[in-house]
Amino acid sequence: MKKEETPIHEHDCDNCVFLGNWVSRFYEPGVETDLYFCSGGIGGWTVICRFGELGDYASGAVFSGSCEDLSEAGKRAVEKGLITQADIDKACAR
Predict the structure, then answer these.
(1) Best exposed site among 26, 49, 68, 74 by fewest CB in 10 Å?
(2) Domain annotation covers residue 38
(3) Is residue 5 included in any domain, yes or no?
(4) Does residue 2 carry a pLDDT above 60?
């Protein structure tokens, strides 16, 4: 049985949905991170990869197709029904 994942790093946004843990392959290779979907980002939704508590994170819907860490967050948000693949495609085309 797989253990339930919980956030590693403090994250204080009430608009965010925790998507699980992820070992970074881009921003902090080998570091365990938290992935989030946020419906309240500037200009709409965004995905987040948090790898620390003191502002250590990356975000951006526009990068959800090109950065492996944010792509994984986007994939998980689609799997949870929070956005569609078309939403990601549209954000990446900006």
Answers:
(1) 68
(2) yes
(3) no
(4) no
Please list the residues that pair with 35 across neighbouring strands.
20, 49
In the structure encoding, which two tokens stand for residue 9, read together? Answer: 């790093």
Residues across the chain:
94
Interval 36-61: pLDDT, tens: 999 986 678 999 999 887 778 888 87
Q: What is the pLDDT of residue 20?
A: 96
Nearest to 11 by CA among 44, 41, 51, 45: 51
> Crossing angle of helices 68-79/85-92, nearest 10°?
150
Distance CA 49, CA 58 (A): 5
> Cα(32)–Cα(10) distance, rounded to whole angstroms?
13
Count up the domains in the chain and report the number.
1
